[in-house]
Amino acid sequence: MYTQKSQQVQNNKIYTYYKCVYSPDLAQDRYFENRIKSGRRPIPITGNPFVEWADHLMIHQEMSPASVIMLAKKAKLFPERFIPCIKTLYNWIDRKLIKTRNINLLTKLKLKNKKPTGFTRINKKVLGQSIELRPHAVDTRTTFGHWEIDTVVGQKSGEDQVLLTMVERK
Fold this sequence. Notes:
Blueprint: E1 2-10, E2 13-21, H1 24-37, H2 49-60, H3 65-75, H4 86-94, H5 106-110, H6 136-140, E3 147-153, E4 162-168
Antiparallel strand pairs: 1-2, 3-4
Organism: Macrococcus bovicus
InterPro entries: Transposase-Integrase, Transposase_IS30-like
Protein name: IS30 family transposase
């Protein structure tokens, strides 16, 4: 909104009127200005005494980021605004914004993020005898009467038709 001024002359007198007018462009500009100023202010990394102290403990004394933060909070060594949360400190380490690297964190290197490739489920549902346990005569294909049956399923909506294929192994 902005104020619009208008003047009117009547009988040698000047009358001044003020009227508030809505402007969507001005409102949008003001929104963007306020949006930039909103939100929590980030904790500064440069010039932060906690960061240098935490780097020293994590590199030279092999402490974890969580224990460094807990020690700083418990002993009240720094003002609360300088101490980041654990997630923020790990993010700084991952982004290489501080001197500590992942190689300095012993437990982080031990974590395995992926499942092993040869992983088999213990409670897997058994739908019949495995094809690997069939008799040797079937593999040689010397006799008739051994069939391979397979199904081809369309989209997995549960209501689609299925194509059944039956092939004799001979």
